[in-house]
Amino acid sequence: MDIVIPSRGRAHLGMSSLKALTAAGLRTFLAVPMGELAAYERYDSDLCPVVGCPSAGIANTRQWIVDNVGSDDTVCMVDDDLTFFHRRSDDPTKLRDITPEELWAAFGQLERTLSDSVPHAGFATREGANRNTDALHWNTRILRVLAYHRPTLDKEGIAFGRMRVMEDFDVALRLLRTGRHNVILNNFAHNQPGSGTEGGCSTYRTMEVQAEAAHQLAKLHPGFVRVVEKETKTSWGGQKRTDVQISWKKALAAGEAVHGHA
After folding, report:
1. How far apart are the first and last CA of the chain?
2. R_g of the chain, CA atoms, integer Å
3. For residue range 94-123, what is the model confidence (pLDDT) as tens digits?
């Protein structure tokens, strides 16, 4: 599996995901804007090749990564500011810090999970991880650790670039609507400081861009996406934001009705 961290404007912030992945011995590409190669140069090594991405915006960057970084049939894009956890065996509703050996094994399992019938997979989010303790969580929202089966994306002509943000939701829905499944490896989880932090998408992902994307996603996937207003606690300065509610399993059922089971 090709593991890639897209990053922008955060060379000075510590790169918690990169530290965890390389400590686990996982070779990880760091994809950064061409103009920031010098800033990220200190991370470059055999275990962490730093590559310059000519595309602007997270959606176009993701597509450039799929098309150009690595050569494996599977690719996993990881947000740059994550910490990782393992589900506790004594109390499965709780998490503990993951060991480097467990993180290595987690990505190995992620790679083996991907196929034409399950072309999209990831890990649980820390928030809400206490509510579902099954080892696998099927056909739901996947965030921040985004693993894909490249040949399936290519075969179905599914790309990230048609939305400026929420591009991961668009691709997830398009895959489900072909009758294919996604899955979360629910024994592994991750956490993030919060949306809208310095660098990354915060340089252009305004409340207006967020709202525009929510309405666009609803138009692209009618009947499966509902635009809603949500209260925020720490992200976006505590403002109300326009967001979406997505019927993931309904999208899969519609895909299976048209295309059959993958």
Report:
1. 22
2. 18
3. 999 999 999 999 999 999 999 999 999 999
pLDDT the model gives residue 238: 60
> Quick one: how far is CA 199 from the chain centroid?
17
> DSSP class of residue 181?
-
What tokens appear for 164 in the block?
A: 């400026």
Q: Is 42 exposed, middle or buried (0-12, 13-18, 19+ CB in 10 A)?
A: exposed
The span from the CA of 8 to the CA of 33, in Å, is: 7
Query: At residue 6, what is the residue type?
Result: P
pTM: 0.93
Positions of E strands within the chain: 2-6, 28-33, 50-53, 74-78, 83-87, 95-97, 120-125, 136-138, 145-149, 182-191, 225-230, 241-246
Look at phi and psi of residue 31 and say left if phi exceeds 0, alpha if psi is from -120 to 50, else beta. Answer: beta
